[in-house]
Amino acid sequence: MEKRPVVFIDRDGTINKEAGYINHPDNFEVYPFVSHAVRLLNVNDILAVVVTNQAGIARGYYPIGTMHLLHEKMESILNENGAKIDALYYCPHHPSSKIKEYALDCNCRKPKTGMIDKALQELPIDEKNMYVVGDKLSDMEFGWNAGCKTIMVMTGYGKGELVKLKNYEKKPDFICENLLDAVLFVLEDLKK
Ligand SMILES: [Mg+2]
Ligand SMILES: [Zn+2]
């Protein structure tokens, strides 16, 4: 299969409004520009892959079934608008979890690269053209750790995280308003 560029997209604060530990689909609000952004990736043969830390599961704030309900809601909103996520990876773990199966110092919790490692095994990814989009510095570190270009958005925690970035040696490749701007950057960058 032909290898394709990929955009790894953070969920909370990037796809949906940041609302703490979201424990019900009614509190899960997808930003209005997301369908357009993902559809642009789809029509340009770029893989759209969601990567999300869901330590709320490990902390017992909501069961894993609730997370699946949120993802069903996300996918149905996207599908209604002609957009599709190619794959979704989540990390339900946290070392301090009281729930045995999630009490793990795992490899998949961002900024560790486990979710990208798995995607590389499962999807036809062109490793030279990998991007990470997120609202937190940990998303940027996740991207740097895996050799991706990084894009920071100003939705979610973005504006506050930007202040912390001042003390960082490394900088994201692009800082922008939201996921749609990030995708437009990717499309331009791939023409180079
Ligand atoms: Mg986020
Ligand atoms: Zn994990």
Automatic annotation (TrEMBL):
Protein name: D,D-heptose 1,7-bisphosphate phosphatase
Main location as per UniProt: cytoplasm
Family annotation (SUPFAM superfamilies): HAD-like
The UniProt record lists the keyword Acyltransferase: no
Site, Contributes to substrate recognition: residue positions: 109-110
Similarity comment: family membership: Belongs to the gmhB family.
Cell location: Cytoplasm
Molecular-function annotations in GO: metal ion binding; phosphatase activity
EC identifiers of the protein: 3.1.3.-
Active site location: 10 (nucleophile), 12 (proton donor)
Binding annotation for Mg(2+): 10, 12, 135-136
Binding site for Zn(2+): 91, 93, 106, 108
Keyword Metal-binding: yes
GO CC terms, sorted: cytoplasm
Site (described: Stabilizes the phosphoryl group): 52
Keywords linked to the UniProt accession: Carbohydrate metabolism, Cytoplasm, Hydrolase, Magnesium, Metal-binding, Zinc
Cofactor entry: Zn(2+); Mg(2+)
A GO biological-process term: carbohydrate metabolic process
Binding site for substrate: 10-12, 18-21, 52-55, 109-110, 136
CDD domains according to UniProt: HAD_HisB-N (cd07503)
